[in-house]
Amino acid sequence: MIRTLLVAAIALSVAGCSTYQREKADLTMGGGQSYRQQQAQERLDEARAKNTSMREEEEMARTELADVQAKLKEVQRDAAAQQKTLLAARKSSKITAARHDQLSRKLDDTTSDYYATALELQSAEAAGSTATSAKKKRELAELEKELKKIDAEISILAK
Question: What SS3 class is residue 109?
């Protein structure tokens, strides 16, 4: 029993001694504040800076997502209006049924491609793929040009 207590007392004093020795070494290396505290503070500062950066990136991503969603709604509204214009032109015999069907398909296909590309852009941005994001943005710009051409064509035919 005494032997166990003696071993426990030695173990505790050695443990306390090693802590004291580490603290003494830290003070010698780092001056007033312990070296470990300085390291911990540096890690904390780095983590805070990274957290701030991630929040800013998240906010930018949310803004871009809102912009893409707003553009999708605009494209959807425009496509619906163009379909109505096409139907009115067909009913008033300004265009043939075949031409109506052709333009309607072209409008639907381009609008579908726009939606798919916008979703792919969102996925690429969520994954952090800047190369894919840039490619999808270029594709969306081309599809927007195509939608404007279709709109102009429908407007001319509907007059």
Answer: helix
